[in-house]
Amino acid sequence: MAELEQETEPEKVGLSAERLARIEGHFARYVDDGRLAGWLAAVTRRGQVAYVARRGDRDREAGTPVEVDTLWRWYSMTKPVTSVAAMMLYEEGAFDLRDPVSRWIPSLADPQVYVAGPPARPVTRPAAEPIRVWHLLTHTAGLTYGFHHVHPVDAIYRAAGFEWGHPRGMDLAACVDAWAALPLLFDPGSEWAYSVATDVLGRLVEVVSGQSLDEFFRTRIFEPLGMRDTAFWVDEAGADRVAALYTAHPRTRLATPADGSAALSRHRMLSGGGGLVGSARDYHRFTQMLLRGGELDGVRLLGARTVSYMATNHLPGRQDLERFGRKLFAETSYDGIGFGLGFSVTDDPAAAKVLGSAGEYGWGGAASTVFWVDPAEELTVLFFTQLMPSSTHPIRPELKALVYQALVE
């Protein structure tokens, strides 16, 4: 299968080449002034790649440029892959979305909700509702991330060793059991908070399927779709293709080298919430499968109605995250944005105040990567870079405006 490359003239699929060129012009300045080391962007419409651009270095200190086969840390762009895996099992009748997850993960049988008190001595009460499968898919389970630094429960996660990572030596099963012993932020289903829920979902995939998460991904998703470069770590043969990781300098916000060595080492914790490393080409194939309703090149992973169902806002009353979510970090904006089964979903572009379409869905990763799928416009968009955190620069809203202004048909 070919690398990710332009397949058609933009005008043939209703895009303006002149206007698409604004993407490279705009983000070139990010590289020129040091905000990013390098990046790659791709725009596909009606099943054909109409635009691919790249700029800068995959490793600025080594002087190696971004190439089309560069490997990127996907971080939370892993979450849609895990959600697809879970929905594949759902289609097979393995579980109902309303099933309590404790049927397969017993440690989640008695969730406790934080009420009051300091992190060292929290007061809790029994949850009014069990954690159900749909709660994991929608981040409404009451779980959290230690890096939020907002709520006492976040501090409890950090004290247990969970901030941007996990305690050394723990595998996915052990992490899930550890989270199960910590208080919830709220009763499952009552609010939205970005969390380790998708990691728990990955453990559910393991238990239900009888396969480790990497094996399920490899045999059921990656090999069927021809995603040849994606895994939970990169072996020695591919190490020179991995982009360097950067963090924003606290004062200048310029890209500063960070430790990205975890992507190069084999580890026990298979994070369905943020562990995959892969190429832009591989993620492009994944997005094309979604845009085509679960099928690509004769391989069907999901039914078309399942994909449409996943891309529907599942928050109660179809509320947006501004009204139903906690004001915590997330890889999306809040106004006009709902949440489906594994993706954010744009319900109201006017409320979101970013050019786009109702019904588009996608997600981003901690290193400022992003993707979205727009069924109405038959459009998919990818942007890869490696700058943490993703909230440093307004890359995503800028990219959306630059893409949609190039649609002329």
Automatic annotation (TrEMBL):
<dbReference type="InterPro" id="IPR001466">
    <property type="entry name" value="Beta-lactam-related"/>
</dbReference>
<dbReference type="InterPro" id="IPR012338">
    <property type="entry name" value="Beta-lactam/transpept-like"/>
</dbReference>
<keyword id="KW-0378">Hydrolase</keyword>
<protein>
    <submittedName>
        <fullName>Serine hydrolase</fullName>
    </submittedName>
</protein>
<feature type="domain" description="Beta-lactamase-related">
    <location>
        <begin position="25"/>
        <end position="403"/>
    </location>
</feature>
<dbReference type="Pfam" id="PF00144">
    <property type="entry name" value="Beta-lactamase"/>
</dbReference>
<dbReference type="InterPro" id="IPR050789">
    <property type="entry name" value="Diverse_Enzym_Activities"/>
</dbReference>
<dbReference type="GO" id="GO:0016787">
    <property type="term" value="F:hydrolase activity"/>
</dbReference>
